[in-house]
Amino acid sequence: MEGRNRGILLVAAGLAAVSGLLFGHDTGVISGALLFLTKQFHLSNGLQELVTGMVLIGAVAGAVVAGQLADRLGRRKSIIILATLFLIGSGGSAAAQTLPWLLAGRFIVGFAIGGASFVGPLYIAEISPREIRGALVLLNQLAITAGIFFAYLIDYAFASTAQGWRWMFAVGIVPAAVLAIGMFFLPDSPRWLIKHGDREAAAGVLRRLRDEDENEVNNEVQRIQDRVRKQAHWHELLKPGLRLALLVGIGLAIAQQVTGINTIIYYAPTFFKQIGVPGKTQTAAILAGAIVAAVNLLATIVAIWLVDRVGRRALLKVGLAGMAASLGLLSGLLFFFGPAAGWWVIACMMAYVTAFAIGLGPVFWLLISEIYPLRVRGSGMSIATVFNWGGNLLVALTFLTLFQSIGRPATFLIYAGLSVVAWIFIQLLVPETKGRSLEEIERDWAERASADKDRPEQRGQLRSAS
Ligand code: BGC
Predict the structure, then answer these.
(1) Rounded to two decimals, what is the model's pTM?
(2) 453 burial class (0-12, 13-18, 19+ CB within 10 angstroms)?
């Protein structure tokens, strides 16, 4: 049996991570599709923004609803429902004949990825043993970056096909079908099962997923059972102890977006095109996008290798320091030399994307799958995810205006400043979760809450475990 169960665990985590592929595909595909859509539906600038923004609006709605879904129906069923919705939304967008039809399709796709963006990591965290939980949850971010990369290749492949945009959207049906069908054959999360009173089924799942003897399995079931409380309302997150977990999730969610990642991912191809690297055509710009996406993907592999070795806090802090430094340099280069700084600007962008992909990109999704107690895990992740997609929408709506009003150097300087603020936030508040079981992490918050109660003078004084 040795090793066989580990194989099943890897397959389960890998399959659930396909939800990240849907997320990434949609993030990357729109830039290529938009060129076509603008012609086909005679879109003004405002309407182009609406078509792009509709996914983000849908994602906020999906993130709100999916927390309830994941707690009531279970993680596995929720992923099946969300993948099916993605399938319908992609098919619908690909077949759209009118603008309202297209917008409805985009909203459904957004709803599905808003939910799947956190239910995927949630499922993986709950089936994983603590020693490799970080690496397995990061498979989801790897899938996001792979999705963005493949989307550029798909855009490239269909760039000169008539009605190519329909194909660009339709390709999303394939991973969605794989995810929806594949999840049918996977077990439910043992933690969710225990919470819903099905101890036997949970032990059965752990026997399939762990290379451990019966004793160890029973101990794990008992440890989870010991911490199970009744399903709590999300208000519970406002109580002492958990309030801090709520703040950490929301703070990281906002930090991940307001430090500008999606502006760089979108803006890099335009910049490459402006300075003529690797050429001045639209196809060259798509190719440049693919290069940035490849750097993002490769750096995520490094994060997977490091996350259970050096821990979450180290990756976050090194990553944010790198982001702040590269954004600061980028801002200075653009201010003093403009596009003449050419390759240096590109090097800064690559360094920034690498730093994001090592730290805040993957570690945000990982930490929010770890820090909330089982009874409010769905709600806690849902709230953090709403702030993440909300932040994404905010940046999408403001960055072009900022470019035009205060200029690019100042805009990137703001993102650099926000990276410094995020670094301080992490230093002060974010706990280390490496090597701890989800139940131990839960107990840490409870202890912290009672310590706060016992020593009121220290309330609000936060220690960050290291
Ligand atoms: C973020 C996305 C971003 C992607 C880039 C994700 O963790 O949530 O907004 O586009 O990383 O790789």
Answers:
(1) 0.91
(2) exposed
